[in-house]
Write a structure and sequence with these properties.
Number of strands: 3
Oligomer: single chain
Helix content: 25-40%
Strand content: 15-25%
Mean pLDDT: 88
Length: 105
């Protein structure tokens, strides 16, 4: 499954993930695999400027960003939406699996 290869790569290269997120201005990022069909993966970012973060990632030569861009080529739908999120209190979709979470310093 492409999702597992992607998330395992991110977990195995967490130092680079954290460097990339720091450069993008992301304070926290979490990715969830939702149960059922069709396959649904949801990423949540705590970021000041999502469009600037997206631009920084799109021009990065870090391997994690290259792998992420390749992963995104297989997406059917991509959207950026703003909403209030407190990871300590938020209950994600029942049965959703946390693939990884990253908090750059």
């Amino acid at each position: 499954m492409a999702v597992r290869r992607w998330s395992n790569y991110m977990l195995a290269h967490m130092d680079e993930v954290l460097a990339s997120l720091h450069r993008e201005g992301v304070r926290h990022e979490a990715w969830y695999l939702c149960p059922g069909e069709p396959l649904c993966v949801i990423g949540i970012m705590d970021v000041t400027d999502a469009l600037a973060a997206q631009k920084a990632m799109s021009t990065s030569s870090l391997s994690v960003d290259e792998v992420h861009r390749e992963f995104k080529r297989h997406w059917v739908h991509s959207d950026i939406s703003a909403f209030e999120y407190d990871p300590g209190e938020y209950q994600f979709q029942e049965g959703a699996e946390l693939l990884f979470s990253a908090h750059p310093k």
